[in-house]
Specification:
This protein has 42 residues and is mainly beta. Helix content is 0%, strand content 38%. The two termini are 27 Å apart.
Length: 42
């Protein structure tokens, strides 16, 4: 999965862990890891 985002302020931000599962078979799922997103000025 990917997405496009626009940074409007520099800083460090917490990225929450993701969780996705199939609608009719919830035993099939995937989990992501939490992270830190750093936005810096060029």
């Amino acid at each position: 999965m990917s997405y496009v985002a626009q940074a409007i302020a520099p800083g460090e931000f917490s990225v929450m862990a993701t969780h996705a599962e199939e609608m009719y078979e919830p035993e099939v799922f995937g989990k992501g890891m939490p992270a830190i997103l750093k936005v810096v000025r060029d």
